[in-house]
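TA notes. Do not distribute before section.
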Amino acid sequence: MKEKISTEEFEMFEHEIWKEFLENATQLEIHKSVITSNFDGNKLLLNWIKDNPEVDKATILVAYWMCAPRWNKKFLNRDDCLEKQGYRIEEFDFIEEIEQKYIDGFYQGTGIIFDPKSDIENYDWTSDYLDEIVVREIPKVMFEPTEGQIEIKEYPEDFDEGLPLKPIDYAQKVYDIFEKYEVE
């Protein structure tokens, strides 16, 4: 019989695995992590990249566009978002903060190529939510492709749910928690 743990205890174990990965990851691995992550349950990764000036600009743009910035531009400001859709305030704050930091030159990494109009699967992220009536525009710089030496041309199959499978299988470490414990 498996030992039972709470969801909070599981998240503690999972966060330790994520922290270990992020502390040792290259910029390319962090980029692949963002591309393959499920954003609904990965605030740790998103906050880590948001607050890290060494993160590659391409990685920040991927996170920015995957969070649907145009949807948030229908709000005049934070108070307007709180009033109309308070449940999305964390996403609103995240998008606004990385947008401002990007414009201010906070992010320093420049090794990876990313074009928000044509990602690794030729998807145009800039076309999301074009039907939304916006009251603020997305800054032009957020549409510009990044320059670099590394271009990812296909979906990273060596990552699962944002974690690498090799050389250390961090994804398996998370799955092992489920094998060892019953999460309530």
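Switch to the second chain here.
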Amino acid sequence: MFELISEQALKMCAIILTAFAACCVLMPRFIVKMRTYAEQPIRDDGPQTHLKKQGTPTLGGLVLLASLFLNVLLWGNLHNVYIQALLIATAGMALLGFIDDYLKIKKKNSRGVTGKQKLFCQFSLAFFVLFWINAAQGMQATQVFIPFIGPWDIGFLYYIFGAVVIVGTSNAVNLTDGLDGLVSVPLIIANLVFTVVILGLADYALVYPVLPEITPCLVFTCATIGATLGFLWFNAPPAKIFMGDTGSMALGAALGTLAVITKHELLLALVGGVFVAEAVSDILQVGSYKLRKKRIFKMAPIHHHFEKSGWAETCVVVRFWIISVILACIGLACLQWR
């Protein structure tokens, strides 16, 4: 058993390192190219400190995703249904994000694909992915695991619930990607937690349900961790490149799909608490202004509120990282409470 665990651990470390190395090798030349073709539009109504970021290239998510996909192809089992679902969700959302980024660059403003168009495409993709997963999970496909209670089969309603999880996570991660380095660490931490979950589902019955065929998903989570670490090397303050919607929407969709595959959607809501707070703050801000013509926050998403309250950008980023670590610890502790 010890030798088996050691072999698995070595493989996981190798995947992380190769994904990190691939991103670090590809990114510098890409940054040079993008300085000419793809400058990130900066919001005029945002914090004034952001104006100095004008001219920073975007679309860094392309290199991150290229590193991710290359390592999945190198290490992964492409015949596995769950790997296929993750690749479909990630690639589909990346394409939508790329179109959004392209339109923003072309128009030289922060508006790309309209909200209605984006949601239609996102939900269409999410439903397709859910039906793809259903083929592998059978009766378990429509179950939701509730802590302290157990599995609850909600039937066809699960497809609506699952689609909301995938689309909501994609958009929440996208909203979080607003400060240098902010989104990367919460993404890495969430993928680390789901790596532990997958190990438990596959071999050790630490968590519900037991899914022996889910082990290949470890390749995807480890490749995501390594590629995101590589991107963070260049996105750390002051950022040399931004991820763009191409990367953030795709990685968010992948994380939501992982939660659906593992039947741990509620765990994602806890571990991804930073993403939830960013999305909820934006919804509340828009809703309040439409209903009362008043704003709740100085600016949404909430990381901008703290900036306008006097927090330095690096202070906001590091404190959000700390919160992510704390939530991950609580989430891992909750895995024992079935």
